[in-house]
Structure formats: structure tokens, C-alpha cells
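Handoff note, outgoing to incoming analyst
You'll be picking up this chain. Sequence as last confirmed:
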Amino acid sequence: MFKKYFLHIYLSGLVFSLNAQIDPGEAEALFKKGNYLGAINEYKKLLKVERDDAEYNYKLALCYLKTNCDRTQAVLPLERALKQKKYPSDAPYYLALAYTYNYEFDKSLEILNEYRKKCSGKELQRVDKLTENCNTAKQMMLTPINVKFENLGSGINSEFPDYYPFTTANETTIYFTSRRKDGKSKVLEYDGYYASEIYTTSFDGEKFSPAKNMTNFNSTFDDQVVGLSADGENVFVFTTAGTAKYGELVKYSKKQGTFKKETFIQQVNQEKSVETSGYMSPDGDIIFFASNRSGGYGGFDIWMIRKLPNGLWGLPFNAGPEINTPADEDFPTLSVDGTKLYFSSNGHPGMGGYDLFESEWNYEAGTFSTPKNMGYPLNTPYDELTISFSEDGKHAYLSAWKKEGLGDLDIYRVTFEEIEFIQTLYIITIPSGIETDPYIKHAVITVNNEKGETVGIYRANQNNGRYIMILGPGKYTMEVEAEGYKPHSEKIKVNEFTHRIGKIEKVVYLEK
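Most recent structure output, in case you need it:
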């Protein structure tokens, strides 16, 4: 009896001690400021003492749902909150949302169907939208698109958010935004992250260079790359460094090899609205941008502005109801040939959050086709906000949270497997040393890939003595055999940019 009593006194004292060290107000203050990362740690501390507290579990779950992390971690605290006698009235909605991040759409729909009976007004609209997302996601997952994701690695990505990647058409330069620790600002902002800054990396067809801070683009405030022209000569930046209340859209243009900040088009930035992203058409005559200005269809819309024959810019006009919805559309870009508009939206049918869409654009008529969702797994229940394509249409860049990532959002290179690589043309000649018959024409060239598999056997054109090979990116072994000569073997490396050289003429010398 004494031991039990002593244990009870000990545990009570421990709980009292823990309560004395943990201030619930700290968690609430961080939550209200939007510092969800910090609030997660505080709510976890509180839950060690009061594991079943409905409010603490609910707030912890909301923190997970509002950060770029494994949002499925919101499921357990929400399930725990809903087991209590009293819990926040919209907790069922958030549990349904949390299930979507684990692709448990049927569970989500089951909760939504029951919760709908208690809803009305805007809450009912929110339930209907999540229901639509669940049904859309289930359909999209039946016909996934064939894509491969490549994390750009620790030389580019960090434990902090790395996002908004934009590539030049030739894919040699990529700009992106990061909120990592090594920027100009060393002080954490209200949300627990460092100020956003712009970085760049270069790609040679095989590897990416380490990320480099674009110091001439960055201030001690928030700076984000939000658009890039196909030639890389114009970079659109959203910055809070100016006098605009909510930040403004600016453009840097390359002059004699150096980027200079330009006074942006007066008609684009407005005092009472926010312009979040921009993109210039390949001919330089149209700028697409996103804005929440009045006169749209609701939320943020895609807008356009055309250059007039006199060289001045006209008035902005809305891209129209095919593109814009009562919700939000953002980050417009065009395909390199200018025939497709890519953008993000949380209004068109998608898997949840923002999805990526494409629409055919008729430049002459100024019309857009009904937007098409770009498919799963490119789109997920998380937010997919930007996509930037290379000129071959086979590769694109986006940011995403994935379990195998380095932390928070990472930059990924996406390969669309159904689009063929641009092949590289090799023209091989084998000199004979005989003036009257200068080339060896009876040789056989065998090309094997890294796995030792034969990808081609080539013989000469008997008229000109040329051996023609067409190879895709990869590492190969070329073996040349000809009667009367010693076998010859050498390595050939073809990267994704080799085709830009044009035809590659190669001379192989054989020994007798």
C-alpha cells in the first residue's frame, strides 16, 4: 500500500513539474504567428502531459497540414481528438483531408459524407470541394502518366524549403528559391524560416553544379524567382524589398552579360492588389502574370498584357473563364513553341491543393482550350505550384515534398518517359591507308550498353565507307572488328545535350 501511494505521489509531482516547464501560451502564440514548425514542438511537449487533450491534438494536426512535411502525421492526433467528448467542430473535415495525403480517399469520403449532414454555407462548399478532389484523385490514379522523378541532390537541395524552379529552354541554367540558412538574412522570420533568396545551378547534360546564391537578385527581405523567359534573358522576381505593401513583381533583364533590375510595367503592379508571378512569351510581346486585382473571376487569376505596335504596353486583360475560376490560378508559363499554357490552380478538378494544368493557346484568336489536368503522379494531394519545361518537352522541373527527399520541399527533374530522347548521329570512318580505296568497308561495329547488352550492329555504306550510328543518352562500348586487323574497343559517352553538336564525325584507326 505504501509503494502504491508513493508511486502516485511521485507521478503527480512529475506531472506538476512538467506542467510548470511547459507554457500552453507559447504553443498558441507560435500557432497564431504562423510558425507551425515551432508550434509542432510545443504541442508535442503539451501532449506528453495531456495526451488526449482534444485542442492540443487538433492544433498539432493543423500544424502538420500547414507545413511542407509528412502531412499524414496529422491523422493520429485528429483520430485521438475525435475520440474525446468535445472536440473542435471542423476536426472531421481535417481528418478527411489528412487521409488524402495517405491516398486513403475512401476513408476520407466516408467521413465527409457523415460530416456533410452538419454543414452549411462556406463549410459545405469546402466539404464539396474536398469530396470532388477525392473522386477526381481516384479516377486519375487509374491512369497514371509515365514519369520519373530525379531529386537534384544535396548540392542543390537543403533541409530547408527549396522551390519554384525555372529552367531556360536549353536546360543549361536553372533558377530556384530557397529559405536556407546561408543567405543574406541570418534571422528567422515570423514563420520559423529564413528569408527567401534566389539561387542558380547549371546543367551540362550529365550533372548539376552546386547551388550558387544570386546576390544581385537578393536583398535582406524576401526575394523569389517566379518566372523566366525561355532564353533566360528575363527573370521575374517577387520581392518585399520595395515600397509596395504586400510585395511587388519586378523584372531583371540581361544587358551585356549582367542582369539589371528594370522599372516594371506600370500597368501590372497595382497598389491594392498582389501580383505573384510573371512570364514573357518567346517573342517578347506578351506578358502573363497572376494577380488578385478586381475585375477577375475570384481569388488570383491569370492576366495578360500585350505590347502595342508603338512599343508601349497596353492595358492588362483577363485570360478568361476557360483558364480562371472563382478560386486561385497562378504561375503561368508557355511551352517553348508558345502553343501551350501551363499553370497551377486549386479551382479546376484536381487531386487536392494546387494541381498543374495545361491548355492549348491559339495566339491569333487569343483563345484557350479547356484546361487539362497534367495527371498523377505529377500531381498529388499536396500543392504542385510550378512547372518549367525544357525545349525537348521530355524534361521539366518542379518542387515537391517526398519521403525520400532531403527535407521540406526539394527540387526535382521530371522525365516524361513516353517522349523519345533526341538521338545523336555518329558518322564513323575507318581509314585503310590505301589511296585507291581509302576506307575499310568490311568492318563490323558492335555497340553495347553498360549492362553489356548489344544496342546495335553497324556495317558500312559500300558507296562512301561510312558507318552510321544513332545513339540515345548513355555510356557505351564500341567494338570494331575487321578481317586482317586487330580488334578495336573504346568507350563512348552520350549525354542529353550531345545532339546539339549536330552530327559527330569520328575516325577510328585499326592496327594490322
